[in-house]
């Protein structure tokens, strides 16, 4: 955020944002790497255990902030958002080991242990979350078997941990806290019974609201970045999906959204959680959004299936046989629609590895013929994602008591015209694509609001996004809405 509003252009006409281009962001922050074998860091780690390299991430954040301040010394604040559910454990101001990755197989084993005490249906009625084996509560159940948890005095989700590194102040931002499974869906407070059972009752920091000030950038970091004055760190909607939906330029209160990156988060925005058996059996989650809204949504695998397939093919190819997604997509788009779809949300696609092989197996099991080329695999993924986005958008809206009037596709996946068009075709409603960097916009808008006074409701934030970004519209081709 810059302090003098010079990055947003206040003219006679509508207020417009100077939206950072994806390339700009890459240049500043570089590409953060994903899952590492835990054994890269800890000698006695199980071979299949996965972790994030938070030290590398922190080094990149510092590098990026240095570049950002060099360009704009008038930056007034910083806001941090990230993926959800994963956490750092601290003892006396030091991190204990690495942050485990939510794709770590230990979580699956923990599910049945936790369910000995808390049945899945009871958990849903307490926390309103979709069952996902990587929710923080399952990770903590696995962690209980490890001595590390007993030694910890503080648990911080990833953005809260970065905020602490930046300011020295501890807190638990509410939108991200709502993904842990430890928040009571009715009271919005930490659930003491679950926290006690999981051994984290004394380690959970106080909840803080998005828009509040976490603290001031530590002086030694301000000096490192070349910041001329005091810089605030603002708690934004620190769950990336919460930031993305806050900035999604929804057409009406009855519009559905898909925040499509690694994950496809498909849902609607509601004033209150839906804790019915239908919602639970449908696999829906109630996550807290900006201004106490509820994101009733379903986690469906997103572009992970594409990126992991490409990674797998490249890993197993000669150095001169490396391919990119961009090089294969035109041929995939030109193919006939496949007769068979896969369920992108199936647990078999969660772990890294031979995703194309698992897709072929799923197609054969469904009675289809094995895809013969990489382009066919990609086409099956895109058709399956679109079908799943369309179906889940209608289910979410149905649980909210309406039919969707449009589907907004935001995030990296909105750059694929084929995915947008197929989603429109399969849903029978218009797909509005963009912004690509919706999470970054949601982050910066909450900071803008924190600086700018009272009258920035979400409607006004979304209007600013509409004024600033070139959206693309995809009308459905062919038959009407899905049943
Ligand atoms: C999206 C996301 C999802 C969460 C998954 C894992 O990036 O934050 O909302 O379920 O990542 O944290």
In short:
Residues 256-450 form the Carbohydrate kinase FGGY C-terminal domain. Pfam families: FGGY_C, FGGY_N. With 483 residues, the chain is an alpha+beta fold.
What does this structure look like?
With 483 residues, the chain is of the alpha+beta class. It has two domains: 3-239, Nucleotidyltransferase, domain 5 (2-Layer Sandwich); 250-434 and 453-483, 2-Layer Sandwich (Nucleotidyltransferase, domain 5). It contains 19 helices and 20 strands. It has helices at residues 22-29, 54-71, 106-117, 120-127, 136-144, 147-151, 158-167, 174-177, 192-197, 219-225, 240-247, 277-281, 304-315, 325-334, 355-365, 374-400, 417-427, 438-452, 458-468, and strands at 8-9, 16-17, 36-37, 50-52, 77-79, 87-91, 94-95, 99-100, 154-157, 172-173, 207-208, 213-216, 232-234, 256-260, 263-270, 285-288, 294-301, 407-410, 431-433, 472-474. The strands form six sheets. The protein has a seven-stranded mixed beta sheet, sandwiched between helices. The protein has a three-stranded antiparallel beta sheet with strand order 3-4-8, with no helix packed on it. The chain has a three-stranded mixed beta sheet with strand order 5-13-12, sandwiched between helices. Helix 17 (417-427) links the parallel strand 18 and strand 19 (431-433). Helix 3 (106-117) packs across helix 5, helix 14 crosses helix 16 (374-400) and helix 16 (374-400) packs across helix 17 (417-427). The model is unreliable at 2-11 (pLDDT under 50). Bound molecules: beta-L-fructofuranose. Beta-L-fructofuranose (LFR) is lined by residues 83-85, 102, 239-241, 261-263, 265, 299.
């Amino acid at each position: 955020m810059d302090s003098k509003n010079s990055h947003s252009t206040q003219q006679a006409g509508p207020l417009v944002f100077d939206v950072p281009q994806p390339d700009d962001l890459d240049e500043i922050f570089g590409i953060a790497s994903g899952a590492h074998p835990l054994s890269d860091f800890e000698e006695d780690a199980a071979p299949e255990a996965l972790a994030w390299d938070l030290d590398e991430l922190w080094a990149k954040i510092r590098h990026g902030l240095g570049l950002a301040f060099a360009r704009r010394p008038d930056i007034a604040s910083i806001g941090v958002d990230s993926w959800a559910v994963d956490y750092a454990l601290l003892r006396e101001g030091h991190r204990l080991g690495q942050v485990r990755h939510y794709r770590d197989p230990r979580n699956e084993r923990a599910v049945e242990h936790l369910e000995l005490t808390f049945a899945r249906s009871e958990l849903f009625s307490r926390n309103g979350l979709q069952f996902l084996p990587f929710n923080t509560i399952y990770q903590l159940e696995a962690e209980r078997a490890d001595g590390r948890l007993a030694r910890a005095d503080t648990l911080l989700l990833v953005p809260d941990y970065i905020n602490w590194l930046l300011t020295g102040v501890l807190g638990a931002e509410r939108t991200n806290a709502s993904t842990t499974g430890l928040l009571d869906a009715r009271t919005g407070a930490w659930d003491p019974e679950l926290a006690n059972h999981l051994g984290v009752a004394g380690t959970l920091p106080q909840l803080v609201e998005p828009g509040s000030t976490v603290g001031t950038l530590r002086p030694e970091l301000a000096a490192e970045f070349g910041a001329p004055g005091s810089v605030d760190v603002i708690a934004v909607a620190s769950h990336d999906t919460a930031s993305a939906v806050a900035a999604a330029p929804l057409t009406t209160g009855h519009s559905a959204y898909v925040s499509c990156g690694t994950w496809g988060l498909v849902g609607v925005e509601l004033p209150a959680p839906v804790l019915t058996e239908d919602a639970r059996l449908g696999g829906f989650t109630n996550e807290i959004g900006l201004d106490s809204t509820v994101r009733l949504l379903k986690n469906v695998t997103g572009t992970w299936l594409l990126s992991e397939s490409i990674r797998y093919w490249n890993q197993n190819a000669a150095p001169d046989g490396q391919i990119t997604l961009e090089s294969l997509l035109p041929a995939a788009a030109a193919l006939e629609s496949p007769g068979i779809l896969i369920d992108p949300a199936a647990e078999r696609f969660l772990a890294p590895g031979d995703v194309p092989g698992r897709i072929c197996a799923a197609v054969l099991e469904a009675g289809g013929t094995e895809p013969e080329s990489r382009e066919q695999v990609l086409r099956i993924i895109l058709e399956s994602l679109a079908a799943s986005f369309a179906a889940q958008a209608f289910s979410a809206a149905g649980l909210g008591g309406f039919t969707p009037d449009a589907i907004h596709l935001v995030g990296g996946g909105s750059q694929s015209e084929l995915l947008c068009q197929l989603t429109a075709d399969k849903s029978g409603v218009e797909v509005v694509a963009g912004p690509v960097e919706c999470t970054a916009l949601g982050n910066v808008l909450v900071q803008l609001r924190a600086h700018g006074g009272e009258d920035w409701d979400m409607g006004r934030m979304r209007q600013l996004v509409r004024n600033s970004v070139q959206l693309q519209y995809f009308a459905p081709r062919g038959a009407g809405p899905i049943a």
